[in-house]
Amino acid sequence: MTASRDADGPVEPAPETGALADPAYREAVVDLLAAITYGEISAFDRLAEDSLLAPTLEDKLAVARMAAVELGHVDLLQARIAELGADPHAALAPFRAAVDRFHEHTAPADWWESLVKAYVGDGLAADFYREIAAYLDPRTRDVVIASLADTGHSDFVVDRVQAAIAEDHRLGGRLALWGRRLMGEALTQAQRVAAERDALTALLAGGVDRPALDLAAIGRMFARITELHAERMAKLGLDS
Amino acid sequence: MTASRDADGPVEPAPETGALADPAYREAVVDLLAAITYGEISAFDRLAEDSLLAPTLEDKLAVARMAAVELGHVDLLQARIAELGADPHAALAPFRAAVDRFHEHTAPADWWESLVKAYVGDGLAADFYREIAAYLDPRTRDVVIASLADTGHSDFVVDRVQAAIAEDHRLGGRLALWGRRLMGEALTQAQRVAAERDALTALLAGGVDRPALDLAAIGRMFARITELHAERMAKLGLDS
């Protein structure tokens, strides 16, 4: 089994009790963890690249640290994928296209777009995964929640963006549009993944030991995510 | 004072006793810490960039982790620069040209050159700074030594390079030349820094409370560094 290569000893398989006894649930959880993992790896790449555009060394380090934090979550996520009996590298493959396309379609035109993307994109992903986490077995839930911690590095984005739009109001208008585009592209790619990965989508429909999420509940979930997005934009000083 | 922005509270200045009472010594130590810091930031940039060229996701993650480790040392180094009363961002400026030039002159042509550069370049810098550390006050020495830990991530370079040259002997010849070029360029840029930064150079000449390093001792130091470089190349399976 390839999985064991990434741990110090052989991987202890997760006990097949409760929800984990359901193969469809395990498959869905591996998919979810893999999507988050590839998202974090890809965020590392983009943030490291963006950090090269920083106007000062201080800003550069702030963004580079955000990149390192994303990468720091990867080990934990991959360890859980291995515990669930899947290959922690191969499992990521189905999510590359959607995540890569998201980044292709939202390539920042300048430093300010990079900052807003880092803050808004990371926030959106975290809100979404935090909602899903409520439907997971406790151990997987803990891993997902731990992987969403941003350790406060993105606070500096708020300072920088607020200061920049106070100086240049047209920038505020452009970045508000940019925030909408990020949200739209995130939804497009999430739908694409949902359409292609049946097990993952079925996760939200419940199963053994797990509550189901009906259409009304899914609607409320998206309403909460949209609201949090608007709060985040407002914190930056941007209309949403 | 800008220095205090990077700490949680006001920066506690280092006590001005022993070697630290000598302003020339403090200046030299700030220079040394700044050179190491800018080297690590720059290594982060290059490794993050190189990780995009990796042939597999596993290799990509290994190199991205090496990048994150380099960045992880920056806080500790900058905190010590601030303790010594200098601005931890501005102090780095005099070392940008030499470090940037090193990287411009040693831009890897492919993945294998990236791997060898990561391993040999990092090793050379660590050996050099470890030698210098013997001449520092204990607190600064601890910071420098801690910043050189690579936490074993580069072991994978040895595996990968050995396997690649076993398959393709011409690659071994090319990478052996590449290792010599890395050494040559590192010496060129180190000499450039030595010529421009008098305090740093004077550090090796000793002073209050500190042993002097005579020319014979400097010669022995370079002999040890060259020997360690040769051992590292041999470990990769390359002539030096």
Automatic annotation (TrEMBL), chains A, B:
Chain segments annotated as transmembrane: none
Domain Ferritin-like: from-to ranges: 24-207
InterPro entries: Ferritin-like, Ferritin-like_SF, Ferritin_actino
Superkingdom of this protein's organism: Bacteria
Name listed for the protein in its UniProt record: Ferritin-like fold-containing protein
Biological source species: Nocardioides aestuarii
